[in-house]
Amino acid sequence: MGIVLTRLVRAEWAKLFSTRVWIGLLVGACVLSGAFAALFTAFAGNPDSGLPPLDSPEYGQLAFSLATNATVISVVLGIIGITQEYRHRTATPTFLATPQRGRVVIAKLLAYAVAGIGLAVAVCAVTTAVVLVYGNARGDAPDLSGDNLRVLAFAGLALVIYTVIGVGLGALLKNQVGAIVAALVYLFVVEPLLRSIPATSGAYKWLPGGALEAMTATFQGPDLLEQWQGALLLLAYGLVAAFLGTVLAVRRDVV
Amino acid sequence: MRAVDDLSFTVEPGQVTGFLGPNGAGKTTTLRMALGLITPDTGTTTFNGVRYAGLPEPMRQVGAVLETAFHPARSGRDHLRVYCRATGLPVARADEVLDQVGLGPAGRRRAGGYSLGMRQRLGLATALLGDPSVLVLDEPANGLDPEGIQWLRGFLRHLAHDQGRTVLVSSHLLSEVEQTADRVVIVGAGRLVRQGSLAELRAGSTGSVLVRSPQIAALAEQLRSTGTTVDVTDGAPDGLTVTGLSTDEVGRRAFAAGIELHELRSHTSGLEEVYFRLTAGQEQYAARTEQGAA
C-alpha cells in the first residue's frame, strides 16, 4: 500500500509538472500576495486608508496575513488537479491503471497537499520579502517574530488546507469551469455577504472564510474563533471535502 | 433503460476477437463494465479468472483503450510516463512503446496537436505499456487512414498469432475486422446476436435463390403457399428472390406447376450482408450513461 501510494503520488506530480499550468498558478499567487503586501505597506499609517502605522503591532500582523490572498489560487490548484482528469477524459486510463479509485484520490490529496506546501512557501517568502524590503525603505519594517511569525505560519497552513479543499471540491463537482466559478463566487460574493449581513454574521465564524480569518486576523473583525480553533475548523473542512470527494469518485461510474 | 442485457461470451488467447455491433448496441458500455469503470446491476467479467479490480497490476495483465483523449498540453511521451509511474514501470518503457506503434519522435510533441490516427496510436501505446497478455481495444480503427488500418491489422494479428496474446477489438464496421478477426461476437440492442468464427458465420448465412420467369405472379403464389419467403428482385421486373429453398426445390415446384423458368441460380450472401441482416433495425441512440446488466 505504501509503495503503491508513493508511485501514485509521483504519477500525480508527473501530471502536474508535465503541463505549464503550475507555473501560471505559482506566479499568479506570488504576484497577488506580493501586490497586496506592497499596496498595504504603501498606505500604512495613511489617515485616509484607515491602515495602522508601519511601526504598530497591528500592522505587522496584518501585513503578514496578506499571504492568505493567495488562498483563491490554492483552491484553483486543487480543483484543476482533479477536474483535469474529467475535462480531458484521462480519468479512464487513470482508473484503468489503478482500479482502486480511492487510492487515486488519496494520492491526489497527498500530492496536492505537498504542492500546496510549495506554493505556500513561495507565497510566504514573497509576502515577507515585500513587507520587509518595502517597509524598510519606508522607514520601519515589522519584525518577523512572535505573533507576526505565527500569523505567517498560519497563513501558510491555510494555503495548504485550501489546496486540499480544492481537490475535494473538484472531486465533488467534476466540472472544471463550474467548480472554479463556484469557488470564486463563494469566496468573493457569498462569504463577504454573509460576513457583512448582521443576521448571518454570527454563522460566518463557522465558515471556511471565518476560520481563515480567525487564523490570521487579530484586530477589529467580526466575532471569530480562537486562532487554533480556526485552524482545526479549516482542517476539518479540508478533511470533509477530501472524504466526500473520495467516496464519490469511488462510487460514480466513469463514462 | 437497459443498455446491455444477458450478454455472455469468452475471448480466447492467440486470436483476434472482433466485438461487433451497430452504434449504440452497448459495445462500449460492455467494455466499461468489464473493466470496472461502470458497475453493472448483475454479472461479472474475469480476466484469467480474476475481476479487473482484483488484478494486482492490471496494466501488466490487461491493456485497454476506451478513449483516445489526452491532456492537450501534455506530450504523448509524458502521458505514457505518467502511467509508467502509476504502475511502477521504468519510464524508459514510454519510448519503447512509442517506437512500437510508430509514433517515435512525435511523442515529444503536445498531444493536442495529434491527428486522430496519432491519437489511436498513442492509445494503443498506453495499452502496451505493461506488456499485457490481454488487449481490449474500443474502435481502434476509428480515424485511421487506409495505411493506418493496414498497419493496425498486421499489428493486431502479430500480437495475437505470433505473440499469443488475447485481443478483443470492438468495431461497428464488419469490414474493419473482417481481415483481422478470427472470431466475432455480434451484439445488437445490448444482447448477443451471434458468436463464432468468421467461417462459421459465412456458412451460417442462408443463401437465397434467384429465379426469373415470365409468370412470376403464379410462381410467387406457388412458393408462398408453403410459407417460403419470396421477394421481388431489385432491378429485374421478372425476377424473384427466394429464401430458404434450394435451386433443385424451386425448379421441381415450378416444373410441377407448369411454370416456365428463364433463369435459376443460387446466390450466396456475403459476410457484410449477414452482419447487416443480423443487426438490422437494432441501431439505438440511447444515452451512453445508461447502464444495465452484463
Structure overview:
The complex is a heterodimer of chains A (255) and B (294). Chain A is mainly α and 255 residues long. Chain A has one domain (2-251). Chain A is built from eleven helices and no strands. Chain A has helices at 2-17, 21-43, 57-65, 71-87, 91-97, 101-137, 146-173, 176-196, 198-204, 208-216, 227-251. In chain A, helix 2 packs parallel to helix 6, helix 4 runs antiparallel to helix 6 (101-137) and helix 7 packs parallel to helix 11 (227-251). The longest helix of chain A has 37 residues, at 101-137. The two termini of chain A are 27 Å apart. The model of chain A has no long low-confidence stretch (mean pLDDT 92). Chain B is an alpha/beta fold. Chain B has two domains: 16-202, 3-Layer(aba) Sandwich (Rossmann fold); 206-268, Alpha-Beta Plaits. In chain B, the strands form three sheets. Chain B has a six-stranded mixed beta sheet with strand order 4-5-6-1-7-8, sandwiched between helices. Chain B has a four-stranded antiparallel beta sheet with strand order 10-11-9-12, with helices on one face. In chain B, strands 2-3 form a two-stranded antiparallel ribbon. In chain B, strand 5, helix 6 (146-162) and strand 6 form a beta-alpha-beta unit. In chain B, helix 4 (93-100) packs across helix 5 (116-128). Chain B is elongated.
Task: Give a brief outline of the structure.
The complex is a heterodimer of chains A (255) and B (294). Chain A is mainly alpha-helical and 255 residues long. Chain A is 78% helix and 0% strand.
Sequence-ordered SSE layout with sheet pairings:
The complex is a heterodimer of chains A (255) and B (294).
Chain A: H1 2-17, H2 21-43, H3 57-65, H4 71-87, H5 91-97, H6 101-137, H7 146-173, H8 176-196, H9 198-204, H10 208-216, H11 227-251
Helix pairs in contact in A: 1-6, 2-4, 2-6, 3-7, 4-6, 4-7, 4-8, 6-7, 6-11, 7-8, 7-11, 8-9, 10-11
Chain B: E1 16-20, H1 27-34, E2 46-47, E3 50-51, H2 58-61, E4 62-65, H3 76-87, H4 93-100, H5 116-128, E5 134-138, H6 146-162, E6 166-171, H7 174-178, E7 183-188, E8 191-197, H8 198-203, E9 208-212, H9 216-224, E10 229-232, E11 239-243, H10 247-257, E12 263-267, H11 271-279
Helix pairs in contact in B: 3-4, 4-5
